[in-house]
Design goal:
Keywords: Hydrolase. This is 6-phosphogluconolactonase. This protein has eight helices and ten strands. By secondary structure, it is α/β, with parallel strands linked by helices. A seven-stranded parallel beta sheet has the order 1-10-9-6-2-3-5, with helices on both faces. The relative contact order is 0.20. It binds ligand LXAUTJHC.
């Protein structure tokens, strides 16, 4: 199946997280059986925490799995906003502690300076087997923020690098993000959202309008890869409720 959007709604994260984890784990097992290895890209933020906890309990040969990020804030791994720290804390535990992790941050002073080296490391992992993306209420997914510097590059399918450095217009940390082309290397895409506010944004994103206004449209409008929208009606729990 190519490019179809399927929506799966769940009452809350308690139901969504194990279902998404089981589906992702199945795809990882299939990739391991076919190629001897599997590559998964996950997002940060607060939404994926229950999914991470459910996924690390899945029984599979985690030593054959490489996990990377869809996007990262340019902060050290001990910073509370680090997506790598989130993955370390909730996903790289139990059996999943045996997985390899490819961060989207290195020792360079800025994301722009570190981008090329990380891009090469990430490209060496391709193709991704699964990418699980989130979405913000401003319609960003990955770090494709409306009005961000380099958004055009990030969404340019012919952009040669797998990663792009972006500065969100609203300020905050500089970001490193997979490009659209890199995300579309994944055989299966999931968009994981919770709560009615995000659902309303998603409904808007499905209407005609510029991709730059609601960059999640780039994902919704692509036709190369199957996309499953996993929606929890009840809003997400706080990180530590997982
Ligand atoms: O900044 C980010 O936000 C989105 C959504 O985060 P959430 O806290 O609303 O779940 C996330 O997908 C992205 O990876 C992250 O860097």
């Amino acid at each position: 199946m190519k490019g179809a959007i399927e929506v799966c709604a769940f009452p809350g994260q308690a139901e969504l997280a194990p279902a998404l984890a089981a589906a992702v784990a199945d795809r990882l097992r299939t990739a391991i059986a076919a190629r001897g290895r599997a590559v998964l890209a996950v997002s940060g933020g607060s939404t994926p925490v229950p999914f991470f906890v459910a996924l690390q309990r899945e029984v599979l040969d985690w030593r054959r799995v490489t996990i990377t990020l869809v996007d990262e804030r340019w902060v050290n791994a001990d910073h509370p906003d680090s997506n790598a720290a989130l993955v370390q804390r909730y996903l790289l535990q139990g059996g999943a502690a045996g997985a390899q992790f490819q961060p989207l941050k290195n020792g360079a002073a800025t994301a722009a300076a570190g981008c090329d080296a990380i891009s090469s490391q990430v490209s060496a992992l391709f193709p991704l087997d699964v990418a699980v993306l989130g979405m913000g209420t401003d319609g960003h997914t990955a770090s494709w923020f409306p009005g961000a510097s380099n958004l055009e590059q990030a969404l340019d399918r012919d952009y040669p690098g797998s990663c792009v450095a972006l500065q969100p217009a609203a300020g905050g940390h500089e970001r490193l993000s997979l490009s659209l082309a890199a995300v579309l290397s994944a055989a299966q895409l999931y968009l994981h959202v919770s709560g009615s506010e995000k659902w309303t944004v998603l409904e808007r994103a499905l209407l005609p309008g510029p991709v730059a206004d609601l960059p999640v449209r780039a994902l919704l409008r692509q036709s190369e890869r199957p996309l499953q929208v996993c929606y929890a009606v009840q809003d997400k729990p706080a990180r530590d409720d997982a």
